[in-house]
Amino acid sequence: xxxxxxxxxxxxxxxxxxxxxxxxxxxxxxxxxxxxxxxxxxxxxxxxxxxxxxxxxxxxxxxxxxxxxxxxxxxxxxxxxxxxxxxxxxxxxxxxxxxxxxxxxxxxxxxxxxxxxxxxxxxxxx
Length: 126
Description:
By secondary structure, the protein is α+β, with helices and mostly antiparallel strands.
């Protein structure tokens, strides 16, 4: 069974969303379930700071030894930070998907709808 922290919100595409101390800025990554399904992550294509992203649209890619998967933005807004440590250590997503393996931060430009609670996300991964 995968780790699903209660304090986070989730998407049906297996991204997680966490508030930061910066108010309208949210940190995003992929879930423990997703990294487990992907296997060993070997490369990540990050968006650029300043890119505008739309909820539900592709904003990056993750390549593993098994496949290539798209990263979908869970929110609409501007990319304000990316985890450049993943350039040299993409395996951080496998080792610590909710900590050192975070992917990007988005400054929200409109309210988010449709994010799942931990309980609801657990139902789709069961």
